[in-house]
Hints:
Elements (H helix, E strand, L loop, with lengths): L13 E8 L7 E3 L3 E4 L2 H7 L6 E11 L5 E8 L5
Antiparallel strand pairs: 1-3, 1-4, 2-5, 4-5
Amino acid sequence: MHGISLDPDTEIVEERYAVVYAPRAKRGRFPEECVKVMDSEAAALAAADISQNRYPARVIGPARSSEGLRLYYLVRWLQERT
Length: 82
């Protein structure tokens, strides 16, 4: 996905549940400061606050961009976006 390979021997870049600050629905990658990694899908759903643009999601990351930023890539939203 998005040129990111998951290495089964490390836990640096992996698929995780998260709450993502996303004012625009079209984005597919998010800087680290916009992502709060959660322990479970239930925790991500409970911590979401749609009125504040904080959506539960499944993400891959963190990965370094060519600019040196740590990014998370969207796998899927856990709730329908409006």
